[in-house]
């Protein structure tokens, strides 16, 4: 679709937004949201006719791109047949969505509890773990994000937690592995894995194993930096959980449904959690949907004991119809395989080549269509291009880099001192190379701030 400029309509949309919409994670008077006129595939455009290659996938959820016709048609068809129905009933779209998800989750995660999004999925996974074990505490990692609701935000290991953390949520944070900025002074992945597991065991020992209900990890942390865990780490956490009777929860809200080149990131590591949370890519975000995939053992806890949780819109028919269509599209069009192919043949080599030429790129890491560039002032010292949680003038180098991306027709995903490469999983080779060219030009702006 070709965008047709209509600045007057765009001005009206912007005026209504500024008058009435309260935006998340924002100081309301300091933001200037772009008025979006339309989107298709890997692109979206504004009312002035500017078109952008979407290297954000929304908030890393449009895994099959914008406005896929088969999913749009499925939503329309479901709306004409049964728009909504209470979650206590068996509904075809809900049952089929659960079946298709359970077919793809690892191991025996065959029961699906539906939520409206990822944060609610995490809330309910933690509730299930606490009820199943009878224990109060949950361990989660620094450099993580698990959602904006009460428990999920306290589990989060980045600054978004700080204003809401009153220290009474039963959450204990620990350091996960991250060799590039190792908290354990490791020099190899093997050292980082062993030291991170020892640190986790020490934390458990000093907190009291009998008080810990669950350990929750993003399989590959997303917003915090796309840090793929070293070989053996997740298997080590699984073994620790088994030894102490702790529920192992993997958060696949961002990494799931093809993003990493597998249906779930857990498939890369051969690890089966007790609970797995999902959302975003399950239906490409077309209608809000999330959920928890539940192991047989935990499901059995609630076989005759009522589960004390639920949502009015759990398994909403429109959302589930979108999930059914999305999963079928991904299978028919080899979307997971395409993500793996693009990662291996275009993004991996292309981003590493950019790192060789640009002094601002300290490290490239990722897989599939899930990549991060760690931007630095100095490659030797690894000093971040901007300080941790920088704002205002301190964040100027990253703001300049983001502006340069947009001037090249690329909409970037920027967080702290990183830019993430997270386009739709079905992005074409030509589109991926277009994005790399735009990044190449924008990184020259970041290079100006290196030492």
What ranges have pLDDT less than 50 throughout 5 or more consecutive residues? none
Percentage of residues in DSSP E strands: 15-25%
Count of DSSP strands? 16
Radius of gyration: 22 Å
The CA-CA distance between the termini, in Å, is 44 Å
Q: What integer is the average pLDDT? A: 97
How are the strands of the biggest sheet laid out side by side? 4-10-9-8-7-5-6
Which structural class should the secondary elements be placed in? Answer: alpha/beta
Overall geometry: globular
Q: Give the number of helices.
A: 13
The helix content is: 25-40%
Order of helices and strands: HEEEHHHEHEHEHEHEEEHHHEEEHEEEH
Biggest sheet layout: 7 strands, mixed
Question: What is this entry, summarized?
Answer:
By secondary structure, this protein is of the alpha/beta class. The chain has helices spanning 7-20, 57-60, 69-81, 92-104, 118-133, 150-155, 189-207, 233-244, 296-301, 317-332, 335-357, 396-407, 429-447; strands spanning 36-40, 43-46, 51-54, 111-115, 137-141, 171-174, 212-218, 247-251, 275-278, 290-294, 361-367, 370-378, 383-384, 410-411, 413-415, 418-421.
